[in-house]
Amino acid sequence: MILCKDSVSHQFKKVDIHQIKELVTEKEFECCSVAGKIGKYSIIVVGLYRTPGATYDQVFLGKLDIALGILCKNYNNVILAGDINIDILKNSRACDMLKNILTQHSFQYLVDFPTRVTLESQSSIDNVFTNINRSQVTVSGVITELSDHDAQLVEVDFKTVKRKQCFTQLKRKFTKQNTILFQKKLEAESWLSLYLAPVDQKYDLFYNIFIYHFNLCFPLVRTRVYRNENDWINNELRKDKEELIHLSQNIRVTKDRATKEILNYKKKLYRTKAQNLKKDFINNKIKNSDNICKSTWKVINNETKPNQELLSKIRLITDGEVTSDPYKVSEIFNNYFIGMVDECVIPNLQKDANPNNLPFVIQNLSDKRFHITPVDEIELDKIISSFKNKYSAGYDEVPMPIIKNIKHLLVKPLAHVINSSFVSGIFPNRLKISKIKTIFKKGNTTDPSNYRPLSILPTFSKIYERVMYIRLVEFLENNNKFDEEQHGFRSGRSVITAGIEFVESTLDAIDRGDHAVGIFMDLSKAFDSVCHSSLIGVLNSLGISGVVLDWFISYLKDRNQYVELSYIDKDNQISFVKSQIKTIKYGVPQGSILGPILFLCYINGLPKSVSNINSKMFCMLMIPIFLFLINL
Q1: Residue 593: what pLDDT?
Q2: For residue 192, is pLDDT > 80?
Q3: CB 283, CB 296: distance < 8 Å
Q4: 216: Cα separation from own chain's centroid
Q5: pTM of the entire structure?
Q6: What is the tens place of the pLDDT at every residue in 620-630?
Q7: Is residue 98 within 8 Å of residue 107, measured between CB atoms?
Q8: Which residue numbers delimit the Reverse transcriptase domain (predicted)?
Q9: Which pLDDT band, with edges at 50, 70 and 90, does 310 fall under?
């Protein structure tokens, strides 16, 4: 029996599907159904019951298989609910058969928790099956005390069925018109106050002038953001679809066979056209991306998990309590990312705190010291041009494409500011703030450890760092400061050359009759766990001293980070929340240009510190990898 509230009873009516009615047998397979419309969406609700022990599981499941096939042909949105007396929580043949049948018809079961609990046992013999998108359906247990079974409350949100979802968001519009206005504002700037300012205030003054015009020309405005799940469908394909529907409607009236043949032919053309259109769209999307691997996995995930909720609120469990408040979640993440490193470093801090205690034996020590050459406007122009056109930005919201568009107006004052930084040994504090985005990896979504922090630095910080990076690598390379086994960040070397040498060493060992053992090491939290005092000692031993060393100390000292989360609020607006800023005590900056090369300096001498081992090292994209070949 299915009961309907008076307020919606006029929308539903009892339906008897002849083919399903023939399947009904008392105690063996009992069902009833109602059908109706919610808005413009048709839905059928079927109640199922099977007496426990009344018949073999195969008989009931066989009839369920037939019923699902019939329902799928007649209805797009189907819900079956009832007491089927098959425990979904137990590993049994009947349970496996049930899951296979549901999968064959693109159905899923929603109840995965106990529905009948006694003092001696608990089971889940009541369930809900549906072919509606999982993101639109939620189910929860309700204790009624009217029966020894709990009730199940099923909620369906048909509002999320829209092909194109619309949200609003505060964004900056980097239009051509706004960019031209920005150029005119900067052209009128003399920057005289910048050139006359004290060294330690130059960047702050540069930033204040720049950001004033930036905010004026690119104000935050509320704009609509559309999420179209079928971006590959164009207007031509939509017209073809409308033509097919029109032909089909005519055939139902005229019953004309010739028109039917035309329809079938055009259906084939339409399917082929749609497949090719989608294939070309995906191919172009991958080929034109900056990161082909990342784009490929994004396409795969979108196709295999099409119903993922956009910017849904993250729920975390800490100390046994569930937290979904965005601000509290951002604080939990920031505390976790900072505290995780503290737990790794502090126990080993006593022995590493002395700058004279270097991590490894440094080879090729010399009196050659590192001196910074100033950057000129021509070099700075080339450096800015070398960056990719990515609109991701740090806390200041300044993207690289905007800087590239007006670089001819910035290279002179910016070169002056950067050179002043090098001369004074001071790295600007404004450039030490990292914005952290969280990326879910795998596992339980309520566990903070299953999220990876993605650090985004200010755009001007990247320019500063690239200037220093070019000079530092040139000094280390020209003076043979790198280990011979190091293949990262060296001209003519890469992870491929490291792999080739490793394979050749292995083959040589086998040819000699030696026993070769390969040890592959991936250091967890390696970049985050670098002790600053030890790193400064290493840099000094490599020939970096004086004001230049002061600059690196300033670069590492007093760095800060905060976590930013985005979510959709109750008004369908994409909102952002930021945690409080926390100080980073250890590590080289994630997402930075200097971070990887500083880490290589930190582990310099590692191969020489282990005797009788042939090692190959490659450090790239913040993943230090060590390949060891041990001849036994």
Answers
A1: 93
A2: yes
A3: no
A4: 32
A5: 0.65
A6: 333 334 444 44
A7: no
A8: 420-632
A9: very low
Distance between CA atoms of 27 and 288, rounded to whole angstroms? 61
Does residue 212 or residue 19 have the better pLDDT? 212
pLDDT digit string, tens, across residues 195-232: 999 988 999 999 999 999 999 999 998 887 766 556 77
What contacts 511, CB < 8 A, 6 or more positions away? none
Q: Does 208 map to a domain?
A: no
- At a CB cut-off of 8 Å and minimum separation 6, what does 379 contact? 467
CB-CB contact of 600 with 475 (8 Å): no
| Overall number of domains in the chain | 3
**Could you please report the per-residue DSSP string of 504-572?**
HHHHHHHHTT--EEEEEEE-TTTTTT--HHHHHHHHHHTT--HHHHHHHHHHHTTEEEEEEEEEE-TTS
Q: Which domain holds residue 476?
A: 317-631
Least confident of 67-76, 160-169, 504-513: 160-169
Helix, strand, coil percent content, the chain, rounded in steps of 5: 45, 20, 35
d(CA 582, CA 432): 12
Same domain, 472 and 444: yes
- Is 616 among the domain residues? yes
Same domain, 401 and 491: yes
- Residue 201 parent element (H or E): none
User: Average pLDDT in the 534-547 region?
Assistant: 91
**CA 47, 52, 57: angle at the middle one, nearest 5?**
85
So what's the pLDDT on residue 159?
Answer: 60
Whole-number CA gyration radius for the chain:
32
384 domain residue, yes or no: yes
| Boundary-marking domain end, from 112, 145, 161 | 161
Helix (H, G, I), strand (E, B) or coil at 591: coil
Residue 127 sits in a domain whose CATH number is: 3.60.10.10
From CA 617, how far away is CA 609, in angstroms rounded? Answer: 14
